[in-house]
Write a structure and sequence with these properties.
Length: 830
């Protein structure tokens, strides 16, 4: 009976009662026949999908059971959402999927599809094939959008089940395996196939199921990026084949090939409350925006609408209104409790997306059974009648009724099947209970951010060999006959520009994109000329939304590209940082490297801009990046560091799948002089390819400048602090104080060995930190010294805990040269 929550027992009882009430079919029917007159789904296929739905339900029940004696750690289930089995059935096993956490039945069907290699493709209908890309590629009219009739899914090659023997059928191939995956996730087994016990997720590379993080809707911008990349690579592939592959210069990391078939579509699912999330609205908007411009994004959004977000109701009609009104996204709707209709509509939607390469949303109505999660006392916010009404719409009962009414099974047989699957699921649960858990910090972090510095160095050397050898002609041509090493000393901005061009030449899969990076060449000219040289397909302006820019990068990286998105100002990264933190940086962690999103995010930032003030143009806060596990943060201060550091980041992304933030100090972009006007000491020549190997800058290695005797004080700094510290050091040298200035170059991982060595050399450390005193980089440097047992003197000069104000007032909160010299003198006076 119902208490304040629908218990597994209630659900089980209700299901048994409902099935017992179903009459036996008068005349058993041939399972090879369609289950109803208006579908291609056969009885056998529906029995198969029923198995997936039941497996998912039994997994939910097992999850509660495991929890009841402290061996399960996850009770958010799929009960009531099992209609998503129909969505999986309507897709191909090779369509990449980013799934809602209630996707148990989808996952089982997908595993079954993949396991059953003999099953012909359900969507292998010529009418579903995408239009061949042409230059114009006009979108077909909407009335051409309906799914062409075609044969439905074929039966497995092995003997089809016969009505009357429903309970005795073996569990379809893949379902037991899927159940084991899910149960391993619930008990945090280190043998769980995707996250290895780090999270309970649906994911497996061989099923093209990409793990999602449980942060509502955060996977949607990535799905759009994947759609864009899949389509772009399909067209590049076609164009490449047409052009005989003669257009590519380098091969750093290989040419771009998506891990999915060219006509794949991307599917991503989410709940109804998630529709309101900023990440979701960003994704819908971006998909629609690109569609409006004529670019193709083959993404099927699937909103599984159970009417609730934990306890908060979606206002009646709101989800439909919101989804219907998305420009550029075609709307489909189906009742997830009606397997046949859900399948037919999902198949129509999938075929439409596949054929037209355009985004669509499938609004699947569902119910939520057993509350949001294990501990949810639903009656606090829902009436008993409402809870009971949901139970009446149990999709498993719906499928059972369909099968019985169509004459493919009796209620008793289906109940026996339910018990048989339940027994098998429990048996697997008992087997995985004792599997090992992650038992050491090193084990937990092993897949987080693999670093293979020797391979990265080799990749840089290989790039140099290509640029100086077989690629030399194309390189000279790309640089208009004058490669950057022949143009004289460069500024920081020019040096990054040249290194980006060399990166584009060497990595055919690299793309540069962001706000204003294309035609304008970036607000500071850093990407100037790249679009003309490499084309609008590889260097392009995006819409104005940082979440979407990063999402495009995430999807593109996953699809095999090497994305280099630009965030116009550091302040605007904060808008979207979950895409770096929650999505990018976790991907290898939650997939043990099976998926990776290599990316070099260029961010213009830090303070000291003369004449262009305001906190948003002068953001000096990097704390939010520094604590993201595994993230690489590079801050080049000088032109001769910027190019090799960028090469390292690109190589590390390509080799290790690293997520790198390349933080460029805006105030130094065009700086030419160091000590005196006209000295040109902040300019540097660009290294010719032959010098790249020798000049390679590994991740986590600092640069040290000795000034005077270099024996009295060690200044540890980065970014703008390097230039100010060198100037201060010159002043101090005039006073007879020898300074060594350490440019960290990498804020993560910090160059700890260099810090310790250089600190010990003088015993007096001044940390010059242009970020804020609280949460700033200096805290990390001091902590590294303490951890290493440093016993000398140490002081900090750091930015004030404030936003940077407009105009001259900025100087009140930022580190100054004067403060640095004063800080060094104070250290010496102790
Ligand atoms: C960004 C974010 N905010 C809050 C949460 C906490 N949370 C987890 S599930 C959930 C409700 C989601 O509802 P809906 O999208 O309708 O999916 P449902 O659980 O109903 O299937 C919330 C608020 C979260 N996971 N992520």
């Amino acid at each position: 009976m119902l208490s304040d929550v629908t218990t597994p027992q209630d659900l089980d009882d209700r299901f048994r009662e409902a099935l017992a009430a179903l009459a036996a079919p008068h005349q058993p029917r041939d399972p090879a026949r369609p289950v109803t007159d208006d579908t291609t789904l056969t009885g056998a296929r529906v029995l198969d999908l029923f198995d997936a739905q039941v497996t998912s339900r039994q997994l939910d029940l097992a999850g509660r059971w495991l929890r009841s004696f402290g061996e399960g750690f996850y009770t958010i289930g799929s009960a009531g959402h099992e209609g998503n089995a129909a969505v999986a059935a309507a897709l191909r096993a090779t369509d990449p999927a980013l799934l809602h956490y209630r996707s148990g039945a989808f996952y089982c069907v997908r595993a079954g599809q993949a396991a059953d290699a003999a099953r012909p493709d359900p969507a292998d209908d010529p009418a579903d094939r995408p239009d061949q890309p042409t230059d114009a590629d006009p979108a077909p009219p909407d009335d051409d959008a309906s799914r062409a009739d075609g044969p439905g899914p074929k039966e497995p090659a092995d003997a089809p089940p016969t009505a009357g023997a429903a309970a005795d059928r073996p569990l379809p191939p893949g379902y037991a395996e899927a159940a084991r995956d899910v149960l391993r996730g619930m008990v945090a087994s280190s043998r769980e196939p995707i996250a290895g016990g780090r999270h309970k997720v649906f994911g497996r590379a061989d099923l093209a199921v990409v793990p999602t993080t449980s942060t509502i809707a955060s996977h949607l911008p990535r799905a759009v990026g994947m759609g864009l990349a899949v389509e772009r690579l399909r067209r590049l592939d076609t164009a490449g084949r047409r052009a005989g592959e003669g257009v590519r210069v380098g091969s750093g990391g290989g040419a771009a090939h998506a891990p999915w078939p060219p006509d794949a579509i991307v599917v991503c699912s989410f709940g109804d409350a998630s529709v309101n999330h900023a990440s979701a609205t960003a994704a819908f908007n971006t998909a629609g925006w690109y569609d409006h411009t004529g670019l193709r994004i083959p993404v099927l959004f699937v909103c599984e609408d159970n009417g609730l977000g934990i306890s908060v109701r979606s206002p009646k009609g709101w989800v439909e209104t919101a989804l219907r009104s998305r420009p550029g996204i075609r709307y489909f709707a189906a009742d997830g409790g009606d397997l046949v209709r859900a399948y037919e509509v999902a198949a129509e939607a999938a075929a439409w997306v596949r054929r037209h390469r355009r985004p669509a949303v499938l609004h699947l109505s569902t119910v939520r059974l057993m509350g949001h999660a294990g501990a949810d006392a639903e009656t606090a916010y829902r009436g008993a009648d409402e809870i009971a009404a949901d139970l009446d719409r149990d999709p498993l009962v719906g499928t059972a009724r369909l099968l019985v009414e169509a004459g493919f099974a009796s209620g008793d047989e289906l109940l026996a099947r339910y018990d048989e699957i339940g027994w098998q699921v429990r048996r697997i649960a008992e087997e995985v209970l004792d599997e090992p858990k992650l038992a050491a910090p090193a084990e937990v972090v092993a897949p987080l951010a693999p670093r293979r510095p020797v391979r990265v160095a080799r990749a840089v050397a290989d790039a140099a060999a290509r640029a100086g050898g077989p690629g030399a002609g194309a390189r000279a041509e790309a640089f208009g006959g004058k490669p950057p090493e022949l143009t004289g000393p460069l500024t920081l901005a020019q040096s990054i520009n040249a290194a980006l061009a060399d990166g584009m030449l060497d990595h055919p899969q690299m793309a540069v994109f962001g706000e204003d990076v294309g035609a304008k060449g970036g607000v500071y000219g850093v990407t100037k000329g790249l679009r003309d040289r490499f084309g609008a397909a590889r260097v392009f302006d995006t819409l104005l939304d940082e979440t979407s820019i990063l999402g495009l990068g995430l999807g593109a990286g996953l699809a095999g590209m090497l994305p280099v998105p630009e965030i116009q100002y550091l302040a605007y990264l904060h808008n979207a940082e979950d895409q770096v933190r929650g999505e990018a940086a976790t991907m290898q962690f939650f997939s043990q490297g099976a998926f990776r999103n290599p990316m070099v995010v260029r961010v213009a930032g830090l303070a000291y801009q003369e004449g262009f003030g305001g906190h948003f143009h002068n953001d000096n806060s990097v704390a939010v990046l520094r604590d993201v596990p595994g993230l690489v943060i590079a801050v080049p201060a000088r032109p001769d560091d910027a190019a090799p550091m960028l090469r390292t980041c690109l190589a590390s992304a390509a080799v290790d799948g690293s997520v790198c933030v390349f933080l460029e100090p805006i105030a130094l972009y065009h700086t030419r002089d160091l000590y005196a006007d006209g000295d040109g000491e902040w300019l540097a020549p660009y290294a010719e390819p032959g010098a790249w190997t020798g000049g390679h800058v590994p991740i986590g290695r600092a640069r040290v400048y000795g000034v005077g005797s270099a024996e009295d004080v060690t200044i540890i700094t980065f970014g703008n602090g390097v230039r100010m510290s060198l100037r201060a050091a010159a002043t101090l040298a005039d006073e007879g104080i020898g300074v060594r200035v350490v440019d960290l170059r990498w804020l993560a991982p910090l160059p700890v060995a260099d810090i310790i060595r250089e600190a010990a050399a003088t015993g007096r450390v001044l940390v010059v930190d242009e970020t804020r005193r609280s949460g700033g980089v200096g805290e990390g440097v001091i902590a590294a010294l303490v951890d290493a047992g440093y016993v000398g003197a140490a002081r900090r000069v750091a930015g004030v805990d404030s936003f940077v104000p407009l105009g001259p007032a900025a100087r009140q909160v930022l580190v100054s040269e004067e403060a640095i010299t004063q800080g060094a003198r104070t250290l010496l006076a102790r």
